[in-house]
Amino acid sequence: MENQKTALITGGTSGIGKELAKLFAKDEYNLIIVARDQAELDTTAAELRSSGISVQTIAKDLSDMEQAKVLCKEITTPVDVLVNDAGMGVYGLFKENDLERELGIIHLNICATVILTKHFVQQMAERGGGKILNLGSVAGKLPGPWQAVYHATKAFVLSFTAAIREELKDSGITFTALMPGATDTDFFNKAGMLDSKIAQDKEALADAADVAIEGYEALMAGKDRVIAGWKNSLEVHAANLMPDSSVAHSMYEQQKPVEQEQQNQSGN
Questions:
Q1: Is the pTM of this model over 0.85?
Q2: Catalytic residue among 150, 216, 223, 256
Q3: Domains along the chain?
């Protein structure tokens, strides 16, 4: 057990984060999992320990910057892999959404990622190696009406990851951005997005386990980024050839409430 490597995973109790934790456990990594809910942490830890690895749980709300900083101080075990998975969104028009909730999204998706990456990359650099996986999204390449702030935070994650990868290319540390599309997780429920077209098209949603496998394999191979799913890859490449205004309009149509579309159709 003493020779095993350790992976720190934020948002490790559900969705893609939990599926990634399972993959690390299968490969005999000891785990530190972080989430807000201690009960969910305990349940997930019990499941992961069945693989015979050590699991430490830490309950923190990483949308609170002070808690994110305290987390860094509390972890004394050398971290070989950092997975910045924790993230959230909110659904609705920007002018109507609650400001504090949107600031919380920025704090969690951007600031917590920067705080944890800053802390652990310095430790990894001293040891001459390590791996960091940042959860981006295809949203980071697509202006996103109805989720304007969320999409913008994921654009930051992609730019940030690419930049520090170049800065530290000779350090022995690899940086990988995982870019899933719409995935069957609790994200849509927590974001209040269940009425959107994209959330109701269940057949179009990717499986979280499949996304995690693509991200895990890319991380272990030291790749700079991976777009999970060929359809998402096509969408991103197509968007690169279109004006941002056209991409934004397309996303508006994809993400608008189903009820609004039905009203528009009945009016035609």
A1: yes
A2: 150
A3: 6-267 (3.40.50.720)
